[in-house]
Amino acid sequence: MAYTIIKAKRIVSGDGFDIYDGYLVLKDGLIEKVADKDDTEVRVLFAQEDTEILIEDEMTILPGFLDIHTHGAMGVDFIDIDEEKLKKVGQRYLMEGVTGFCTSTMVLDREKEKDLLRTFGSLPVLLSPRWLGVHLEGPHMNEKYHAMMDPRYLRDPSIKELLENIQLTHGRLRMITMAPELQSAKEFIEACLQQGVVVMLAHSNATCKQTTEALTWGVSGFTHLYYAMTQHTHRNPGMVTAALLDDQTFKELIVDGYHLDEDVVKLTYKICGKDQIVLVTDAMPGKGLGDGEYEFGKLPCVIKDNKAFEKSSGRIAGSTLGMNDALRNMMSFTGCSLSEAVQMAALNPARLLKVDNQFGSLTKGKNADFVMVDDALNVMATYIDARCVFRKS
């Protein structure tokens, strides 16, 4: 096939390469190269009759964002899913620059959970945006930190159950969030590692020492850091302390200005830096529909002024955050560069899920999944496999 060359105001590769007035070169749905205006190879391609040239002089091109922790949108809860609902949510995600996502679940009765996983296993592959797999948030949690999860269905981890879940989803089980202090957690985490399932920690009463030990078992990081876990206190250090001490794992952050104080985000960035933070939305089903009453995990919830909370208890109930909003906020709260924020939203989640050979940066040979944004980080167009799948009118 012929080459496509997109000329843009700025191109941020996601892995440290940032160029103004440059070219993104595509071929066969893949990234061929990012080049500056004086690149001789690009000049040669310009002269070829079959080269497609797109001029986007007002746009900045970024790698597509990967939202690995989201529970739905547009009235759709991922615990009640079918093909059309998955597509409906996907269309919303494209509008915020998401080119890949995981479907995060809530804790359910085991038989209902099996039915849900069986449904996930039967769904056709969604490519626009890319459905990357299932994230089981639970049920292996500490009851003290169940948060929005139904405590009736919490239970200790089971390797037999893990293998059954992998079979039910036809290998689409990608990630599990769990508490490491539960019985048989070590053996379970080691089994997840053998099966290629990523393990994240949260909803836990683990101490700092317990958490630090668990990190040696093959854990990849921490789900929604600070939430539903033991805190960093000066006499009783908890899971947060262990997360901040460790520099080898990933830390999810929900940067909506509501879940975490701006100074906490700033401090976390100062300690963990661009290489460890993964921006997520932890979005709830009412996202995209505005203020009103919605269900999340079968619980009545309310969205008011873009903040979601459970109606009866008033506890936070996920977010209405967009991934482009998360980048904007991260830059505003911490002073980090766009390049660093992009790494947290694209390359780091790809590394966490071990799909960074395909996604996460504008690097030669990777899938041409990218986003065009204006100076305010409004998403103007989203591309997957070099094909425009969303364009703002």
In short:
27% of the residues lie in helices and 29% in strands. The chain has 393 residues and is of the alpha/beta class.
Query: What is the ordering of alpha helices and beta strands?
Result: EEEHEEEEHEHEHEHEHEHEHEEEEHHEEE
CATH architecture of the largest domain: Alpha-Beta Barrel
Oligomer, anyone?
single chain
Question: So, the CATH homologous superfamily of the largest domain?
Answer: Metal-dependent hydrolases
Strand order of the largest sheet: 5-8-9-10-11-12-13-14
Rg calculated over all Cα atoms: 21 Å
Q: Which of globular, elongated, flat, extended, rod-shaped describes the shape?
A: globular
Unreliable stretches (pLDDT < 50, length at least 5) are: none
> Please, how many domains?
2
Q: Main β-sheet: number of strands, strand sense, barrel status? A: 8 strands, parallel
Give the total of beta strands: 20
CATH topology label of the largest domain? TIM Barrel
Q: What is the average of the pLDDT values?
A: 97
Would you tell me the structural class of the helices and strands? Answer: alpha/beta
* Proportion in β-strands: 25-35%
Assign the CATH class of the largest domain: Alpha Beta
Helix content: 25-40%
Distance between the termini: 29 Å
Plain-language structure description:
With 393 residues, the protein is an alpha/beta fold. It has two domains: 3-63 and 361-391, Urease, subunit C, domain 1 (Roll), CATH 2.30.40.10; 65-352, TIM Barrel (Alpha-Beta Barrel). The protein has helices at 40-47, 83-95, 110-122, 159-168, 185-195, 208-214, 239-245, 262-272, 323-334, 338-352; strands spanning 3-12, 18-27, 30-36, 52-63, 65-70, 72-73, 76-77, 98-104, 130-137, 173-178, 198-201, 221-222, 250-253, 277-279, 292-296, 299-304, 307-310, 370-373, 379-384, 387-391. It has an eight-stranded parallel sheet. Strand 18 (370-373) and strand 19 (379-384) form a beta hairpin. It starts with a strand and ends with a strand. 52% of the residues are buried. The model has no long low-confidence stretch (mean pLDDT 97).
